[in-house]
Structures are given as C-alpha cells and as structure tokens.
Amino acid sequence: MHEITWLDAVSRFNKEFSGKRSTALQHAQCQRDFNAFLRLQGRSDAMLHEITRGDAKAFEGYLVNRRTPCLAKATVRKKCSRVKQEFKWGILNKYIEENPLDEVRTASVANKTTYVEVPSVKIHAILSKIECPHARMVLALCRFGGFRYNETAVNTWEGCVDLAGGQLTIKSNKTPPMRSCPIFADLRPYLEAVVEKDRRGPLQSRWAAEQTSRTAIVKLIKEAGYEPWPKILHNLRKNRATELLAQFPPQSVAAWLGHDVSVLLEYYAIIKSEDFAGARNFRA
C-alpha cells in the first residue's frame, strides 16, 4: 500500500476526473468542505490512510451542525457521496484498503423543504411582462413543458418542436437521452409566438447549457413585480409534474418528463394545499 496525503489525493483525483465541468465544480466544493473539517481538527496534512470511519461520521456531523450555513439532509448526503468518490479513487490506486465513508448514508433523499407551489396563472402574469424572448422561452418550457434548464439550450427548433404534430422530441444529457412529450395547450402559445423566421437553431441561446443565469432570471421576476421562489427553475418542473399527475397515469408523466416513476413521485410530486381541502368532500 502506497502513502499519499488527502490534499495530494484530491489534486490527483481532480486531474484524472473526466466528467462534466459542472460535476467537477461540485466535487471541488465538497473537497473544500472536507478541507475545512480537517483544518478544524488541526489535521490539514492528514494522510489518506489516517482518515477513519469515525472521521467520516464526524464530517457528516460537521455538515449538519457546524458548517455555516448548516445543510439540509439531502445536501449532506450528496456532499458525503462526492467525498466518498475520492476515497474510492484511493482504493483503486492502492493508497487505502477500505472506504471510511462506507457507513455514512449517501443515498439520495428528496428535500421537501424546497418545494414551492408556483401556480400557472402566476407564471402567465410574469411572462406577459418579460420582453426578452429567450428568457420567456426558458420559463415557459420549464413550467409548461417540464424541461430541465439545460434542455432549453441543447435542443433545436428543427430537432425538437413539431407544432403541426403537437409533439416535442427532447434530447437530454440524462437517462433516457431522448424522449417524446406532447405540446401542452398552455405551452403552445409561447412557441407559436416566436416568429417563423426565428424557429431555427437552439430553442434559446442567451445562456449556455452548463451556465444557468439564475441571477438574471431572478432580476426578471422581480422586475415583473413578483418575489422569486426557492429553486426557481427546478420548482417550475416540479409544478408541471404535479399538475400532470393529477390528470394522467404516472407512467405516462414519467415518460414525458424523463424519469422513472419512483423518482417522479418521490422528488417531483408536490402536495398541493387545495388537494387537502378538496379531499374533505371526497366520496368513494
């Protein structure tokens, strides 16, 4: 077994990492968190093999209780999962024999606290006040088409939109890499509003697929007279999923949005406030 410090291991891991730039940035943030945890213990120069299962549990506790700001359970698990990959790299390269994070829970869990109802009437009102066609297209596709943000940039008019056939063919960097979705009635007007000569090339090109300009979108929402909600674009997709689930079978909605049914129900279905009140009048 070879020896290497945690910091040197991180440096080598980053040089060898071949994933997406956005994922590399997430790894870097998690590495900074682990570095901060080691500094608190006066162990910035710790050898990789010196980091124990007890340290791993203590790191989990640091993320929950001592990190500023403290993190939600879903975020803690995601960060631990990223750091766990660095130690897995250490095993593959024979620097350590076991992964100290093996006993730390890293399975994904839905963070229900960030779910926000964003009624369609509110989005229509906001869109009516946004002059930029690219920004309007992003919000409309995410809220009424169930698009992920990056899908608005990687798809083209020619390959994606069939207005006559009423269908969207959506390319994605997720699984599945391609899916079909109906052009819903509340989305169609925003697609048809784009003049025909502009229906070519990317659906929107103002922001690149890997760079969501949330700051600009927040500004547009505020300029329309509304207060931005948490997880702005993600909650638009969640609201579309919730509306569709109220009308169509889960397997259909999952296929249209590009998810397994279990993932759709756990992560994207929102419990709407009016459902609880309406259920008081329900009779089987």
Quick check: average pLDDT?
Answer: 89
The largest sheet is: 3 strands, antiparallel
Task: Count up the helices.
Answer: 14
Structure class: mainly alpha
Major sheet: arrangement of strands: 1-2-3
Tally of discrete structural domains: 2
CATH superfamily of the largest domain, by name, is Intergrase catalytic core
Please summarize what this structure is.
This protein is mostly helical. The protein has 14 helices and three strands. It has helices at 6-16, 21-40, 53-66, 73-92, 120-127, 133-144, 151-154, 157-160, 188-192, 214-223, 232-245, 250-257, 261-268, 273-278, and strands at residues 161-162, 167-171, 178-182.
